[in-house]
């Protein structure tokens, strides 16, 4: 891609999106589901699912949560070419810069411990790129609970039942994910946070 060309919102920006699309289509096909049936199960529009399957859309974390919950999938399995089996006594080390990148209009996520499938929670490091609620697109909510801590920069945390809160490095929040929430960068540089979200997969 030429250096002076900006990537559009719906263009793929990493191989992770291509893997995600291929694996999502595989799982849907194994179930013999149409896009309409998958949409009804997940609450995600058929057109959105189609764009994800074709690798031309970067899904938000909220959409990914709805997909894995509605289809009873494992997020890590969707990002890998071959899902890993469940084992006992396991561990995972993610070296600096080794996370699997997923981009959206509000975040650049780096998913951690992606070599383990069927985790009880999802750890990831995120750069917060949205700077206004208009840019973020409104509060999001999904099943589960989550925790995040600010590593760099300054953020403004918006939530459904509370006033916005400004957070700096070392500040953290634990929340019910079913409460609408959003995170905005408000410093000179995009903020960075470490995030842990429960998977809520039954």
From TrEMBL:
The keyword Iron does not apply. GO terms for molecular function: DNA binding; DNA-binding transcription factor activity. One of its GO terms (cellular component) is cytosol. The keyword DNA-binding applies. Residues 1-23 are annotated as: Disordered. Residues 24-78 form the HTH cro/C1-type domain. SUPFAM superfamilies: lambda repressor-like DNA-binding domains, RmlC-like cupins. InterPro entries: Cro/C1-type_HTH, Cupin_2, Lambda_DNA-bd_dom_sf, RmlC-like_jellyroll, RmlC_Cupin_sf, TransReg_Diox_bact_type. Keywords: DNA-binding. Residues 8-18 have a biased composition (Basic and acidic residues). This is Transcriptional regulator.
